[in-house]
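Input record (Table S2, row 210):
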Amino acid sequence: MLSEEEKYILEHSSPQEEGLDWIIKQTNIRTHYQQMLAGPVQGRLLKMLAAATGARRALEIGTFTGYSSACIALGMPPDGHIDSLEKNDELEDLILEGWKRTGVGHKTRLIIGDALQTLKGLEGPYDLVFIDGAKSEYCDYLAMVVDKVRSDGLIIADDTLWAGRLWEKPMPGDPQTTGIAAFNDMAASDPRLECVLLPLRHGLSIIRKR
Ligand SMILES: C[S@@+](CC[C@H](N)C(=O)[O-])C[C@H]1O[C@@H](n2cnc3c(N)ncnc32)[C@H](O)[C@@H]1O
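Output record (S-adenosylmethionine complex):
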């Protein structure tokens, strides 16, 4: 159930493509984890950032059902390409079908496996990286991708406000909360990076590599 504010925001943001509606619907029916999706507003923003930065090579960690990767691919030019990493091979059919229906099948490559292993074999430079895998692994992802991102390229990380748990006193000690807290500290203190943490949904960090 959407709040009045959420309805207003959606009504005043550009509508999303039909293929994306299909992915959301199928995610709900086939996984029951719709809340894992970036959602229409973040999805519009990802598409816009990909388009505005002229991204031609993108990388995503955490495909799930392919929604956010489709949004990024939609923002890229016809010869743009996104590598998307997912460890759950049961999602493969749904991901590929959704990408096809969104018209981005030719721009997307799904790599099934543990991202921490896959990343070792991927070469940059990437123009845009979207981090949305296991929260406990965010610092590892950042350490592994930072040298693969071009200068002035973007690293975007989802859930970086982690539903307000970061400033609870004492802060919860679960691996997800401590993982996000360490990631935020790491990104903000790295002189190679410029960060802005936006209060969009559960927090979205936009990080520019200098
Ligand atoms: C929040 S969901 C991603 C949602 C997706 N980016 C979207 O907005 O449409 C996180 C995904 O990361 C995957 N994941 C978690 N740890 C991973 C790892 N080490 N390697 C690859 N995938 C991983 C999970 O299986 C899950 O599908």
